[in-house]
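Q: I'm writing up a methods section and want to include an example of the input and output format. Could you take the sequence below and give the corresponding predicted structure tokens, formatted cleanly so I can copy it straight into the document?
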Amino acid sequence: MKCLLFGLLLCCFTAVAQVNIIPQPVSVKLSGTNGKFTLRPDTQIIVEGSGLENSINFFNSYLKAYYGFALETASVPKGNNNLTLNFERMDDSIPGAYYLSVDKKGIYIAGDNETGVFYAIQSLIQLLPMAAGGKQLSIPYVEISDRPRFAYRGLMLDVGRHMMPVPFIKKFIDYLAMHKMNEFHWHLTEDQGWRIEIKKYPRLTEVGAWRDGTVIGKRPWKGNDNIRYGGFYTQDQVREIVAYASKRYITVIPEIEMPGHGSAAIAAYPWLSCFPNEKTNIPDSLLSEEGRKTNGKLVYEKWGVAEDVFCAGNDSVFEFLQNVIDEIIPLFPSQYIHVGGDECPKTNWKRCPQCQKRIRDLGLKDEHELQSYFIQRMEKYINSKGKTLIGWDEILEGGLAPNAVVMSWRGEKGGIEAAKQKHTVIMTPTTYVYLDYSQAKHEDSLVIGGYLPLEKVYQYEPIPPVLSADDGRYILGAQANIWTEYMTSPSKVEYMIFPRVDALSEVLWSPKSAKNWMDFKKRLPYQFERYNLWATHYFSDSSEYDTR
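A: Here is the clean output for your methods example:
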């Protein structure tokens, strides 16, 4: 995975003084003197603004972890070897602008707010040498002015298929922070597992968080491994993670899937289904031994889309989902609640007497309009709690909920349509930002399929050229998605996201005019060295990244 070629490339590049920051700042000016400032254990952090503890703590934690020391803070300097943190008005429409200067007088950082100072710290970290344990850290004289391009810069992690431990969730959040990303979309419920404690409905985690086995290999699959798998996050753990993210200026957006992808919840409470007494439809050849013994509902043991969905004709289903939302909202300060809305088969709705009665009573055309009714009903409830609903682009089918944000994943068509309807859009098309797709033409590990090389991610432009300037304003930003059917461990998640998250970070942060693939490739070897310092897994391919 990790290619020695990049160590050789790094040696070649270090002969020339340059700054290798990802994402590329708006403006970088190197001193003509090739001078350097030395940060050392007696360097002081001079605090000239309030509320900067998050930035100070993050930087000191990083120094302690990789160089073995931390810096003292003060309001008045003792000498001239200082890192000064301050605020300056920058009048940027999106929070996070900053100014960073390194010269013989020391390091000076000014942010337009706390977030800006924090992002400046991330750039400062990338100026540090990559050798661990050093106590004399040489930093080149440089002047940087920077600001984000998009307000929404995100990553989604699916923990429904495979759950990731709390320490890795925190590490994942740190990865977002160090790439100046600000949204963590946490996919918490799926057919294959319900991963968040809901106190009113304990069977969601007693039953819904566990499957009795998982299909082996790729479609058409080779049977079932018969290994019981599962787990969930307690509400205390959720609070801990949300607080951790907040200190890194990252918002955690929860996703509770509806009306499809609900098999785990239905296994816990069969009455949520149109047909509570029918067995979950999985071929016996793919079922676990325990699953074959069961005549009722199962937590889904294979990948793909389950036909069993929440019943749209049963008012008690909506009461259940509203009660779930009531427990979710206090845990997540996010303005957004994601409800999924994707891949909802209509098979059961078409033969369900209650759903068909709902269609007749409301004068709906078909099951697509029934799904629109479902989402709009939930949106009204979510709006009544002061929150905004996000859904995948299927929520456009049958009529879009009035205030909903559309997450466009099936290409860009849904996002374009929503923007033209004056709805806020987050772009996340499979063709550019699905990080469960292979990074290599001949992948050396099991992936779900598809090929998405680094360069294609880098070339993505979130605002489609077909949109007018006015409609383009509705594109809030973009995110990459990490679906975990074939990611059973944190190391596999890291391997799949790096270095593609570097490319996406530059797409979302840097000015469109500053994007340059060849220049990005020249900066990559330094980032690989940083991954080595972090002991992070990543994909590398010398045929793609060799810049010689």
